[in-house]
Amino acid sequence: MESDPNMSKICKEYKQLPEDSQFIEKHYDELIFYKDIMLESMTTNGKEKEKFDKDHNHDHGYMVFESASNLFLHLSKLKPETLGVELIKYDKFVRDLTITLKLNGGHLFILDLLIQNKQMFDDFEKDKIKNN
InterPro entries under this entry (predicted)? Predict the structure, then answer.
């Protein structure tokens, strides 16, 4: 997978994702899964771990990748090598992730925000059901 060279030319201002994008509903599990795996690999390699810990004092999320190109570089290392369902899911996730980042100017914080909002909504729904 190659990162889109036009990604860096995209307008740098944040734009709200269209309500019908459905990205989080389709890829919530993949967002969590790939974030955790990529962050784990960044924090287990000796010197890289020291640099990572020094440079990233905040809550670890997609923003630590600093750019869409860097995110896609790390993500490309996780591409399944064999044909099958996992490769199809991976390709669909990467395609939709590319579209999502293009729609909002390439800002990675939106991925962390989507995860956080989904978790808060799910917690709210659980509390609502529990209290009824």
Answer: Fmp23
